[in-house]
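**User:** Hello, beginner here. Are you able to go through the protein record under this note? It all follows right here:
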Amino acid sequence: MTTVTLLAENTARGMGVLGEHGLAWWIDTGTHRVLFDTGQGLVLESNARRLRVDLASAHAIALSHGHLDHVGGLEAALAAAPTATLYLHPRATEPKFTGSDGKPQGRCISAKFVETEAFRTGGRRVVASREPQEIAPGVWTTGEVPRVNDFEDVGGPFFLDEALTRPDPILDDQTVFFTAREGTIVVLGCAHAGVANTLEHIRTLTHGAPLHTVVGGMHLERASERRMTETFAALRRLGVQRFGPNHCTGIAATALFWHEFPGRCIQASAGVRLQFA
């Protein structure tokens, strides 16, 4: 039995559980425990205590990408779990900004702790790789996701410089997945590579194994009508059985999921626990 507990998300469910704009997932296989993303760091430790999750027992900590709402709690998480191996894409440490035309400068959305690679102190094992990694028995990162669909983009105005002159392709974007009796379970960070691209990549990595549950952020807040149409068509073609859209998916896109896939969507707020055989 593998349990997935949502430790941080924009919304919260349960007495004393707090919400923040960000994501943090706790994956417990029964023998190993993985923290995937750390949120901004405002609620991680509080929610972990409330949900009786022992961060110190983490065997691995993995990052989906280098944005603050996913890595802001990393310093605290590493302090709580001093023996955990850290997994990330090499480009997760780049400075990152967001902004729009007409503004004199962008807003920083990366964390100095990650940019300076301060996580390398103390002899911790750090795996910075573009390739898929088995971060616990049966639990994998996708590594860098190939961008093959013409209808998907990174989901917003993201840049590598404060002057907003160098668009960020967010190549550090990666996802976690594992196999259960139900099928492949996919836990997303933000899917800046595109949710369809990501799932196609996972299907390749798993030799076509059926996809059962997809939960997490899909960065569809700014998606065009065409992108939404093509995304839903891809999800149907891929045969996904259950969805838990949250975080950066956006309210409108999340509502469309519940409309397009009646009876197949679940709430994915901080405090929610999912179990898989």
